[in-house]
Amino acid sequence: MIRLILPACSVCFGDPNSLMTKGTIAGVLFLMGVIVLVLGAIFMTAVSWVRNAKRQGQGSF
Description:
Elements: H1 2-5, H2 10-13, H3 19-56
């Protein structure tokens, strides 16, 4: 009975031309971009630490 009252949204229903689907895809891509940027910043920080340790002669890298 609930299935008759609550229809599926366009994302669940699968209409690829729906604005809801396009917005969801854009949101997912944006969040993936944020994750890549944050992980890239963490990686570059680690690389910077390794370079500074090598330059100061304190690292065994």
